[in-house]
Amino acid sequence: MHIGFEAKRFFTNFTGLGNYARFVVDALSGFYPHDHYTLYSPKTRSHPEIDPIVRRSNVQVVAPTGGYRYLKGLWRSWGVSRHDTVRALDVYHGLSQELPAGLPAGIKKVVTVHDLIYIRYPQFYKPVDVAIYKAKAKAACTRADRVIAISQQTAQDIVDFLHIDPRKIDVVYQGSHPIFKQIVSREAQAQVRQKYDLPGRYILNVGTLEPRKNAHQLVKAIALLPKDVRLPLVLVGRATAYKEEIVRTARERGIEDQLIFLHQASFQDFPAIYQQAEVFVYPSLFEGFGIPLVEAIESGVPVITSTGSCFQEAAGEGALYADPHREDELAQQLTRTLQDVTLRSQLVETGRKHIQQFQPPVIAQRLQEVYHK
Q: Which residues of the chain fall short of a pLDDT of 50?
């Protein structure tokens, strides 16, 4: 089989959508080496996470030539469909909620939809962005022969918000970056701890500091903990204006000195930061999947997260759950986890069994099944 991918973020993004794109191409080209994979991207680059994949003999990269080099957006949305290599494809897979217009009728079309948060929570986005994102997702899902949702929650949102026939939707989960499988030595952990001036024990939260991630509620919960249980909170992620609400909440509750912000932490240091945490807490209001939960479980850290949304899918029984609007519930689960060593071990063990379904060979097989449909 010859599969083409819309691969812009494969080359340009080194967080969520880019990690997903590389995970998919790496898994498929590695576990199904007899198939051929063509990556279509308006921009290409060399990078340690990219080069080992694109150097494989069954992977080809196509970028715009001629006048399209100056009209890369047009090439990605329309011109790529006219490239000579497209005629040889069996399947074209849009990895980030988009498909180009004008793909030949004989090519089967697949699109991955990660989330529709911008429709569910439009107040967190500019109105023009909501309109553009929704139009692109609707067009892609309508043109696609199969739609891949990364969770049951996202699949339901595709039906509810875009009115797509549920019979054409397949749920294929995503996995975490392979970096989280490595066990960091004590010496390397100590170096990272010193680099970021981390305490010996801490509660960890990872994600952009934005209202939907709900970190101020976590601050309220920590303030409710008995002083002999309370630990500093390390927040890893890009800052937005919402950071001021987090700091203000901590100041009002008298624990401002317990907050440690890491806005520029190297991704290479993430495993050491995760593995030294006592507990990972993710009180988000809503996610398409919640990949940090899988990262924490891969890192051997007990997890507390929110009820509702997709969080049960991502963490299963390997986590404790609390209403994200109830700081008292969150505080209760924190107290249980921090005081009970046996519970922490059980959560980690159960979580690791749960995330076996997110491993590369499993996901590669599920994608192959979708293509063969």
A: none
